[in-house]
Design goal:
mainly alpha; 4 helices; transmembrane helix; mitochondrion inner membrane; MIC26/MIC27
Length: 186
């Protein structure tokens, strides 16, 4: 068989055993990116319909694009939070599968202090919330003093930061001059 660098030989057979050479095709004749011309009206109508479908899909994509970009940006913002929640849940599950020996007795004491807080909170609704929460917090702080100190330190820093921001906002509002009315006074 003969091999040329720009042409491929083509052979056509009518009868078995009889081979008749046909004009070789060049590589340009075998383009992958052009479609053959339609031979009758039915294929031409199908080509027009395919063009209409493509235009419809393109217009649909352009109309849906703002929504998809909003969904992608929302997903990008929410994904780390969800991953943190899943990781925290997985860590809590693995901790509860094999807890330290002193964990459950401490949880029982903290829960019991919450029940005592409920019993001691007669009267106002605020007492019914603050007494159990306060007693449980106090009992937890007795068992875990390092964590309690860290929580208090973080809470104080956040409260101070919020107070500074509030002070700056109030100061900005008070320094603004009232808008003067446009118009001539008689």
């Amino acid at each position: 068989m003969r091999a040329d660098c720009g042409e491929l030989p083509v052979v056509q057979a009518d009868d078995p055993g009889v081979l008749e050479p046909v004009r070789p095709l060049s590589l340009e004749d075998l383009s992958l990116y052009t479609s053959p011309e339609p031979r009758d009206n039915s294929t031409r109508g199908e080509a027009l319909a395919a063009g209409q479908i493509e235009r419809t899909v393109a217009s649909l994509r352009s109309s849906v694009e703002p929504f998809t970009s909003w969904c992608q940006s929302s997903y990008a913002r929410i994904k780390p939070k969800i991953q943190n929640g899943v990781r925290a849940g997985t860590e809590a599950y693995s901790f509860l599968l094999n807890p330290p020996s002193h964990f459950y007795p401490r949880v029982a004491v903290v829960g019991f202090s919450g029940i005592l807080g409920l019993l001691a909170s007669r009267g106002a609704r605020v007492k019914r919330v603050l007494y159990p929460a306060g007693l449980m917090t106090f009992t937890t702080a007795l068992y875990y003093p390092e964590s309690a100190a860290l929580v208090v330190k973080t809470g104080v820093e956040r409260a101070y930061g919020g107070a500074v921001q509030s002070y700056a906002a109030v100061e900005k509002i008070l320094k603004q001059e009232p808008k003067k009315e446009s118009g001539n006074k008689p």
